[in-house]
Amino acid sequence: MADLERVKARMPYLMFSVSALFFPSPLFEEGKYGAEEGGIERIPAELRTNQNPFDMFTLFMSANVCTATLAFGTLGPALFDLGWWDSFLALLFFNIVGAVPPSLVATFGPKLGLRAMVVNRYSFGWWPSKLVAFLNGVNMIGWAMVNTIAGAVILYDVGQGKLPLAVAVLLLGLVAIVVSVTGYKWVHKFERYSWMIMTVCFCIIAGFGAKHFVNVPMGKGPAETSSILSFGTAIWAFQVSWGGIAADYAVYMREDRKPWVIFLWTWNGLFWGGFLIECLGAALMTSVSGSGAFQAAFDKAGVGGILGEIFVGYGTGVRNFGYFIETILSLSVIAVVTANIYSLGLNVQMLSESLIKVPRFFWSIIGGAIFLVAAIAGRNDLQEAMENFLNVIAYWLTPWLVILAMEHFVWRRGFQYDLDAWNNESKLPKGIAALVVFIIGTVIGVLCMSQTWWVGPIALGVGNPPFGTDISWELEVGVTIALYVPLRWLERRYFGL
């Protein structure tokens, strides 16, 4: 009841402080429009709904069945010099594994009624958890930026260069912000149907593009191994980045929902949405090696140019139909950006008690403005942004997710969490073990890093100079498991939490 009263007590303040300022007509009146007024507070049983676990499938399908995922798939041939079959196999294996951690995090939502960053407090404690929340907030802004640019380049091709890329970024970003500020219920409603429409459009793209696909042969030797592992790191990062927010979209489900059901629906949405669209992206990119026209289109407008080129040569009617399909596909990124900005507002509230008093959707608006500025500034560098951003986030996310998993399976089996402690510093762990292991794990990741701007000594030592071989997340998993269990045992022994 304490959590319920806490949520109710905030309502008058929320309506006065923000709704009255920004929306004179009570746009966010919960009873009228179903907009969510709460923030990171635990959702008590009294506020739970009969939400179907299938919503986790539709959410992550919509978030992945978009042009950003398509653009990511092109990195196999375009950035890592892989052929078709090695790109396919890398996407298959690393997506299977990468979808597991976020699916585990999603199970915390119904059982605990807590957002992912709040669950983080049960291992990292009060103060270290703020560092993780800050990093995850940066993660959300970066993802929103990358995804919006991926949609904007498609609109740019539709406008045949007459629609400035900055304007395309602004249009898509504003729509996503509007959906995200309305909250949990409307985010799920939007995601429930977006993937269906986009899947049809991607099938049309595959049909028109199939004759242009080229079976680029696989490489061999150390260079091939390095490329596979480096692409694998990017695929892993693409999936596990959802771990920081996965529980956010299941907190209103009833507590009696089976964890394995939540896990499976989430995993299927993450895997199939990511794998299939990424494979299409890799296949589309092979067309560049087989045609000068596709190369020119890619050089001019990136992924948007490739999509436009597959409709060329059939006549004006088909080309106009292609523009229509591209326009619909450009809107697909709204589904993923909406989720990013919604959870960003929750991340901000984790940083300070005083920030909880300000409504979540206010912070979503502020975060939305920040990511729009960043996206407009970086609008011409999508491939470079995806390469650098995707790999970097994997270096801190991996040890964090392993720590969360170890805490859950070793010490809190059966969801044995003190639910009254979520906002009480004295009842939470000190977070010493988690912070120390997190830092060590992240440093290990940096030493194993293989980026254009930095190659770690371990990566270089593994082989394939001068680029080395990226084995960051694989080594991080092992080191984090080996260190966290004994250090957390010592922390619990001396501090009792």
From TrEMBL:
Bilayer-crossing regions: 57-76, 88-110, 131-156, 162-181, 193-214, 234-252, 264-285, 321-346, 358-377, 389-411, 432-453
GO CC annotation terms, alphabetical: plasma membrane
Subcellular location: Membrane
Keyword Transmembrane: yes
Keywords: Membrane, Phosphoprotein, Transmembrane, Transmembrane helix, Transport
Membrane topology summary: Multi-pass membrane protein
InterPro entries the record matches: Pur-cyt_permease (IPR001248), Pur-cyt_permease_Fcy2/21/22 (IPR026030)
Superkingdom classification of source: Eukaryota
Swiss-Prot/TrEMBL GO biological process terms: nucleobase transport
Pfam families per UniProt: Transp_cyt_pur (PF02133)
MF GO annotations: transmembrane transporter activity
Listed PANTHER family: PURINE-CYTOSINE PERMEASE FCY2-RELATED, PURINE-CYTOSINE PERMEASE FCY21
Family: Belongs to the purine-cytosine permease (2.A.39) family.
Name the UniProt record assigns to this protein: Purine-cytosine permease
